[in-house]
Amino acid sequence: MIALWMYLLVAAALFCIGTYGVLTRRNAVSILMSIELMLNAVNINLVAFWRYLTPQNMSGQAFSAFVFVIAAAEAAVGLAIIISVYRNRKSVIVDDVNLLKW
Amino acid sequence: MITINAQSIAFILFSLFILGGGLGVVTTRNLIHGALYLVLSLFGVAGFFVLLSAPFLAAVQVLVYIGAIAILIIFAVMLTRSMTSLTEAFNRQWWLGALVGALLFVFLAAGIILPVWGAGSAYAGQPVSEVVATTTDLGVALVDGNQYVLPFEVASLLLTAAMIGAIVIARDDE
Amino acid sequence: MEQQCRDLINTLAACMVANGADPNFANLISALLGVVLVATLPLLTVILLIWVERKFAARIQDRLGPNRVGPFGLLQSVADALKMLTKEDITPAGADRFIYNLAPIIAFAVVVLIWAVIPFTPMHVGSDLSVGILYFVGVGSIGAVKVMVAGWSSNNKYALLGAFRTIAQLVSYEVPMILALLIPVMMSGSMSMQDITWAQGGMWYIFSAPLAFAIFFVSNLAETGRAPFDLLEAESELVAGYNIEYSGFKFGMFMAGEFMHVFTVAVLTAVLFLGGWWGPGVEQIPILGFVYLGLKTMAVYFLMLLVRNTVPRFRIDQVMNFNWKFMVPLSIVLVLVQAFLLRVITSLGLAPNEAGDFVSSLPQTLILLLGNLAIIAVVLNMIRNRGRQQRLADEAARSELAHPAGAPAGD
User: Fold this and answer.
1) What is the mean pLDDT of chain C?
2) Four-residue CA torsion sign, B17, B22, B28, B34
3) Which listed residue, B106, C134, C140, C369, has the most CB atoms within 10 A of its CB?
């Protein structure tokens, strides 16, 4: 049977892959995709803990449902901002968006 | 140690989808391929939810993430094509990012496996019980006055605000 | 005999185990057999359906339709499939090969996957998921990915523009479809397709919620790209849309996928609103449920064909306006009114009893029907007022043109 730590290990690996993507990619849309990976890792964690430790209490799934909502809202607004930046600066490389840098 | 039955084969398959898709997202230069790798990874996560007896979340994952967010990301990739594709995919501190990611994984894995290394721990074993709350319970929990109705309403407000905000930010100033 | 015919899948596994096979292996083989049966049914039916569609369209247009190949032209689809198989398979230069080949596969797979949750008889359903409706919606929304991938990988500006318009239409019309799907879920208390069909024993949901049926029907016409929403692949439009660069068998897969999608939504409408496999005598002879489901599906399919051959095509901005300014508010109001009326019905004690027979479902049906008719009356009144306003404004503008206000009157 599949133990809890196997799910947690996969979620941790996905989270670290997402962290690597956020820290090293230059394209803003790539960074957003890596953030989605991290949110999914958190979701796997939540649902695995819910299933293995408190399956009768719906808190785990409710929390996970709210993470879905937040991720969808953040993806929509983030992509709108990226498109707006592209329209004004003609580039989505995050290194180029440095007007406030001293 | 690990019995080969349908559940473990499914677990291994979905783990491959998830991790392979994740690696594809962070390493590919072609962003459309990256978005499709993301779809593969999200599909693996939906499979995990089915294995974890959460069919509602699996269906919502496919519907919201793959059917909406992935499409949105593909649209954004197509609308923000740079004129020249000569830019590097990774910035100059990529080795530092890889180091941070690897260290984070080592610490997290230590935190997950060390408690299980000895015998007799809650994580090592099987689910506490096979009696699982159903989708009906989730529906009740989201509108019950004593449970999660307030976060539910706040989340709806957040979605409305995000929708209006996204439309306002992304529209052309004609 | 009834015990054996009850469930072919389980009977086969039991037979194999009795003859000494490993139980896991027997279950796997019987499950695979079930999958093959359920997946082959739409593939075989679509061949017949293409012929039905062409004959029907031809008769409406006062011509004969295919009548050369085979008796009454029945083998025309076979001839078309053979022709498509022998065409040259061209890949455009600069196309992204892997995802170019992936798009027709997704197009086909997405439609066949929906057949897993459709209940054929009281005993036979591919997989009785507890979230069957959500599964259908989720799998249907993957269809948008295939359009995007096909439009992008063709390396063709017009295919990309066609893909953008198609995705806008598909994603927009999912909203009223999901809202209309909430009505059967609310009335039966479950998202499982088999449970919704069982709950229609007393009264079919088309009589309790005709407006929900209409919204679901029209949204599915838009989702599958049928007329009048078929500018996505019409011959006179933007060089035929997102699948312009596909030829030969890949194009055939797109076409077959589209026809199967239409058939699948017809079956779903029959299951959700027309009572699925219910009919006289279905509890004694379960296989009759399959026949009844087939008859109801053909009725809905004929309705779709009738609409297709009668109504002219919409422009893309008309399509978008119709969705966001009419269908979405209407379906939200419908869900609100239906939920309110259901609550009133249960608190008044008029809900159908446990057996769910015809007589005890009548009060609930009548009240919900009145609610639906009230919404329809209000909406038609609003449309009529707007039409009248527009007509008066047109007449005022026309008379303004004929007799300008500055000129002296009657001179």
Assistant:
1) 84
2) positive
3) C140
A12 pLDDT above the threshold of 90:
yes
Neighbours of A70 (CB within 10 A): 14
Task: Please return the burial class of C184, using the count of CB atoms within 10 Å of its CB with bins 0-12, 13-18 and 19+.
Answer: buried
Q: Enter the CATH code of domain B1-89.
A: 1.20.120.1200
The predicted pLDDT at position B78 comes to 84
Report DSSP state, residue B40: H
The set of residues, in sequence order, having a beta carbon less than 8 Å from that of C348 and lying 6+ positions away, is none
Q: Do C167 and B71 touch (CB under 8 A)?
A: yes
| Whether the bond into C228 is cis, omega within 30 of 0 | yes
Q: Where are the domains of chain B?
A: 1-89, 91-120, 133-174
The Cα–Cα gap between C162 and C139 comes to 22
- How would residue C408 be classed by pLDDT, with cut points 50, 70 and 90? low
Per-residue pLDDT tens digits for B73-128 = 998 888 887 655 666 777 777 888 899 999 999 999 888 887 766 555 555 566 66
Give the number of B-C residue pairs with CB atoms closer than 8 Å.
62
Exposure letters C76-107 (e unless 16+ CB within 10 A, then b): bbeebbeebeeeeeebeeebbeebbebbbebb
Minimum-distance CB partner of C141 among B5, B6, B63: B63
CB contact under 8 A, B133 and A86: no
The two structure tokens encoding residue C69: 């190949």
Q: pTM for this structure? A: 0.89
Sequence ranges of the domains in chain A = 4-96
What confidence score (pLDDT) does residue B174 get?
60
CA-based max dimension of chain A: 56
- Cα dist from C396 to C385, C399, C401, C407, whole Å: 16, 5, 9, 16
Supply the pLDDT for residue B13: 94
**Domain A4-96 belongs in CATH node 3.30.300.350:** no
Model ipTM value: 0.91
Nearest-CB residue to B71 (from C28, C135, C144)? C144
* CA separation for the pair C190, B137 (Å, rounded): 12
The whole-angstrom separation of Cα C225 and Cα C221 is 6
In this complex, whether C and B touch, counting 3 or more CB pairs under 8 angstroms, is yes
> Which string of b and e fits C237-264 if b means at least 16 CB within 10 Å?
bbebbbbbbbbebbbbbbbbbbbbbbbb
* CA atoms of C79 and C83, how far apart (whole Å): 6
Angle at A81 between CA A76 and CA A84, to 5 degrees: 125
Residues C254-282: what's their mean pLDDT? 88
